[in-house]
Amino acid sequence: MGIAAVGVVMARAMETDRADRMFSDPYARSFVDAAEAVIGTDEWQPLAAWVDLFYSRGVVRTRFVDDFLRDAVAGDCAQVVLLGAGLDARAFRLPLADADVFEVDTSPVFAFKDTVLADAGARSTARSRTAVRADLREDFAARLADSTFDPDRPTAWVAEGVLPYLTVEQARHVITHVGALSAPGSKLVFEHSDKPGPDPRAAALTTPGADRISAMIRGGLGPEGRDWVAGRGWSVEAVERGELGPRYGRPDDRLAGGQFIIATRD
Ligand SMILES: C[S@@+](CC[C@H](N)C(=O)[O-])C[C@H]1O[C@@H](n2cnc3c(N)ncnc32)[C@H](O)[C@@H]1O
User: Fold this and answer.
1) Measured between alpha carbons, how far is 53 from 65 in angstroms, rounded to an integer?
2) Fewer CB atoms near the end CB (10 Å): N or C, the chain?
3) 159 three-state secondary structure
4) Is the pTM of this model over 0.85?
């Protein structure tokens, strides 16, 4: 089980416990409890430090992507692909009865995830939910094509918290394939930063323990990511992350310096 996927689900579990929560993920706590049983203490401590630094970003991102998906599915997108799905439980907690959901991640992640969901008695809320075991750096497009995924139907693509774990070449490889598999009207959401802000990654590099997780970051599409995507057949809209805190009733200076990009296939 990848520790990066556990960090964000820890934040979701904490948020779900709050009276003023901005979303509810009823499976997040089950994932955290099961992960704690298999992850050693020396890895659990860095995770807690990481979550402290990234909490506000993680929960705002979750809420933003939840809203993005609801809107996309209420519009023309009848397929959803979660790239690097990790412990994202949207196929079990969002009203996606009009959509077929495809989750792309590695086999060990699905082995853990599907066991926990089965033990929790989770049932998918999507029309269908398909686990696609693939490496985003290599064969994910072919594995999707082998499944019931239909490139002629508009698709909502979620690249949440995954591109930064790839190099710029690998991230471009992913988005190039996403473009090739996207019918007109398809949507893509990802997080972007084109200017230096109060980046918690800087603090993570000097926070004992959290530095081990920061070391996994490769940068993803990088500061040119938004323009690079816009030059490849997508119309791009940017939403400032800092504006979302107040919108969701949780202003926080640590949200500044980044954007969410919603790209629509021309
Ligand atoms: C930080 S987690 C985010 C998970 C999820 N999107 C979320 O926001 O909860 C990153 C996920 O990307 C997956 N991932 C990273 N590199 C990958 C690759 N090359 N191929 C497939 N999955 C990958 C990891 O296994 C992990 O589950």
Assistant:
1) 20
2) C
3) strand
4) yes
Q: Which atom belonging to ligand 1 lies closest to the Cα atom of 137?
A: 19
CA–CA gap between residue 103 and residue 86 (Å, rounded): 8
Can you tell me whether residue 111 is helix, strand or coil? helix
Question: Which atom of ligand 1 is nearest the CA belonging to 84?
Answer: 12
User: Which CATH number applies to 3-265: 2.60.40.10, 3.20.20.30, 3.40.50.150, 3.30.70.330?
Assistant: 3.40.50.150
Distance (Å, whole) CA 204 – CA 187: 32
87 lines ligand 1 (CB under 6 A): yes
Q: With a 6 A CB cut-off, is 136 part of the ligand 1 pocket?
A: yes
Instruction: Round the average pLDDT of the chain to a whole number and report it.
Output: 92
Q: Which of 165, 170, 216 to mutate to test the pocket of ligand 1 (most atoms within 8 A of CB)?
A: 165
Ranges of residues in the chain with a pLDDT under 70 are 1, 195-213
Q: Which residues pair with 262 in a beta bridge?
A: 189, 237
pLDDT of residue 209: 61
